[in-house]
Write a structure and sequence with these properties.
The structure is a homodimer of 253-residue chains. With 253 residues, chain A is mostly helical. Chain A has eight helices and no strands. The interface between A and B is large, with 49 and 49 residues. The structure holds a DNA duplex (30 and 30 nucleotides).
Amino acid sequence: MLFDAMRPSSKPGSATTARSTRRRAAPKGPPPPRRGKPSAGKDESRARVRLDVDERRAQLVELGLAEFGTRTYEEVSIDLIAQAAGISKGLLYHYFPTKRAYYVACVREAAARLLARMDVPPEVPPLERLQVGLDRYLEYVRGHGGAFATLMRSGAFADRELAAVVDETRATLLGRLTSGMADIFPAPGMLSSPLLPIALQGWVGLAEATSIAWVEACVASEKAPASAPAPRAADVRDLLAQALIALVHNALR
Amino acid sequence: MLFDAMRPSSKPGSATTARSTRRRAAPKGPPPPRRGKPSAGKDESRARVRLDVDERRAQLVELGLAEFGTRTYEEVSIDLIAQAAGISKGLLYHYFPTKRAYYVACVREAAARLLARMDVPPEVPPLERLQVGLDRYLEYVRGHGGAFATLMRSGAFADRELAAVVDETRATLLGRLTSGMADIFPAPGMLSSPLLPIALQGWVGLAEATSIAWVEACVASEKAPASAPAPRAADVRDLLAQALIALVHNALR
DNA sequence: GCGCCTATTGAACTCGAGTCAATGGGGCGG
DNA sequence: CCGCCCCATTGACTCGAGTTCAATAGGCGC
């Protein structure tokens, strides 16, 4: 509702309110001539631009990243996207079967970028890998601020596919951070306690909540330098790394 | 879409497809006679039942708790709610200005119940209070299964008010669990490190993710007893309690 | 028993998601 | 170089869920 003001502003001249009752035109009926001036008038009239499929898709996903990062899922309307992209609403449905599918594609892209940034070369030893990975993670969250929170949480449980994408991202992320760690643990029960996977999933929740709180603190201390100073990224990273070690340690008896 | 089948099934007789173009009837126009048999026919015709405001509100919130706990926010339609409650759609708007407001009211109620259950008497010493509180928490999450996850996460960032309710609930919950704990810590910097609040907020995320993963494990092991057995609630509780202690310890240098 | 207050109703309205037949830009075979 | 076909693109349309509102009726006070 707050964003209604920035909607396409419904051209006052055209018949927006006139609602005709007739059904869809007959399939073979004579083509009705296009209404008024086809390309005259406003500067916003854009010639039909034909793009390659991948190009167009990439453009739309990029736009979606920006829009969904700023507003909520429901606040972003298809019309808004189409207008911002300079295309018709129908074309969006040529690339994505549904609004949710479009959203899922955007989340997928965001997740892929996050994971790409966290790709630490395999020769790095486990503990350092964890630290470097966490640094990259915090860097990303810091840089993308609210977009991260919105993308990963807003409507995360709205459908199965979305939940699957988020879960998979979390699992991959965890794998990146902990690969090779099995060696450095005392391994009494060969890392097979029923508590372990639960503790690990829990730790991901810790990482997300902590990083979001940290970014909020950063923003707050920028706005009001008098308030509590935001902790340094390295401290947050150490907190998370130590918590992971402790959590695994406790989960294995 | 999966739930379309259980919608009010649009009485086939009435003119659902006829779409009139005329505007709303004139304010003082002669009252058109009510359409066909006012109370005859089907057994489902229910006399107008007049309830007290608080009663009706409570009934609707109770129903909302059940519906929103089962399906997603968008999957729950106002028509569905109205039909299930045996009232007209319009009446819902007499009690809640909007669907979101209705949802917020339901989340508020769920949060209140959770917090009520976690109310441990003040004479209980801090550490035991933490343990008992966590037990109650896990009990609640276990008992309300998906409802908890859905209510606390689905569309949690959809609007400011919802986020505020969730944040406030988390803060209160944390307060319940940690009240009196300031005494038992070495308190070098008087508990005032900029990391502390962030670590605490993070821990709440840990608690939520861990408990959700635990419930999932419980459900999975019920369905397939051959798979990994779910850990006991006490173990999860200890894991969370120890994590909280360790997190606070680390945050204070 | 009358009248008012208000819970309750249902139909109309809004507006955004999703559909579809028609269009036309441009690459390619002739 | 021309015309033909493919497919990206369009815009009007349908459909359905949320929201509004004037009218109705239950029951309590007087």
